[in-house]
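Final report, closing paragraph on structural work. Over the funding period we assembled a curated collection of sequence-structure pairs, and we close with a single example.
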Amino acid sequence: MNTMLVRLLAGVCLTGALGLATTAANAQSTEVKEKPRIYTYVSNWVLPRSKWADMEKNNSASQKTIDAALANGTIFAAGNGEALVHTEHGATHYGWWCATSEAGVLNLLDEFYKNGSSTNSTFGSATAHWDGLYVSRFYNYKSGPLKNGYDHAASYTLKADAPNDAVSTLSKALLVPFFEKLMNDGAVVAYQIAEEAIHTQDPNLFYVFYLTPDAAGLDKVNAALSAALGKDPLAGAAFGSMINFVSHRDDLSRANAMFK
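Its predicted structure, as stored:
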């Protein structure tokens, strides 16, 4: 997604934040409401290129533990991915799983520690590693597997004087309706608007994650975005009053996932 489109999308978001989302609300048959919280644990790794094939083997070896956690309800989703747009300090690979409680995500993590897979030689070769624990109240997904899909992640920083409920307002006014339509069209198979549950970075950060079944899905998201922007081309400047775009970043990865 190019920078101009991201900035313009942000402008449309602010329209909702300023209480001008009546049209969007009327367009929906059901009011957008917060859902029960879900928690997502993400483990990021920077691996030398010589170890990339080993990471694929590692993911396969971990699948039995993940399948058991899905079957017994400890988690309801899990996946992994490898970066397609590499950055100097960014992760090359990552794994994640979702649960309806912090206990759920941590119980699966404990299983990986117990069986030794979290400290195997592949992970031991990493030149950098970090984890994140996120919470979301706005999300949706389609049950079933995703193979060789695409994972787009975007981070945004609210300005210090943004309303306390800014993420909720933006989600209800625009982001959820936007992604729900894309899910109905089959362009997106999962999305969430998330914040850190354990703050290891700026507390004003929030994240927009979505998965597409193929590369064409990314183009469909961009096309839908362009169409939405055409309806409100003047809102971009106003969004700058809430978001600090200097810290905005995007990530794009090849992804596999399973949603129960």
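Strands lie at 38-46, 77-83, 93-99, 128-141, 144-157, 190-196, 205-212, 249-259. The chain has a mean pLDDT of 86. We thank the funder for supporting this effort.
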